[in-house]
Amino acid sequence: MPERLRLTKNAQFYRVNEPVEDELLRKILDTASDNMNPDSGFIIDQFRQERNVDELNLGFVYSVRVFSSSRPVYFLDDDFEDTVYAFILIIETGGYLAVLKKSCGNIFDLMDENFTLVGSKEFSSSFSDDDVEFQRLALRNMTVSDRAMRSRSYEAADLKGLLSTHSAGRSIPYYFKLRQGAKTRSISGTGRVVESSSRETIDNIAAWVSEQINLIEAPSNTNFLDAFASKVELSEVLTICSPNAILI
Question: Which of 27, 127, 161, 203 is the most exposed place for a label (fewest CB within 10 A)?
Answer without folding.
Answer: 161
